[in-house]
């Protein structure tokens, strides 16, 4: 099962998993950071949708000044949020977007061919 989307890749799950039931406000930053670290750009809107489900879409709309329809569309699996929309949503959760350098992979040691 994918950690962010909750979708299974094999046989159908017997009980649907709802990550919103287990997500607490103090876990939100780590949850969203993990969605970004996953490398799949589609994971962030889905993770934000999970967070929105915890708060409630009407409350998120009130806090951001965006319509519920815009939020549902933006936070869908086909969503592609604009930077200002992303900033408004993160701000509603008391978070902000930051930029950090990508960790470098250790250089491989060169080996000589044995003669």
From TrEMBL:
Residues 57-100 form the HTH cro/C1-type domain. PROSITE patterns: HTH_CROC1 (PS50943). GO terms for molecular function: DNA binding. InterPro entries: Cro/C1-type_HTH, HI1420, Lambda_DNA-bd_dom_sf. Signal peptide: none annotated. Gene3D superfamilies: lambda repressor-like DNA-binding domains. PANTHER family: SSL7038 PROTEIN. This is Addiction module antidote protein. It comes from mine drainage metagenome. The lineage of its organism: unclassified sequences, metagenomes, ecological metagenomes.
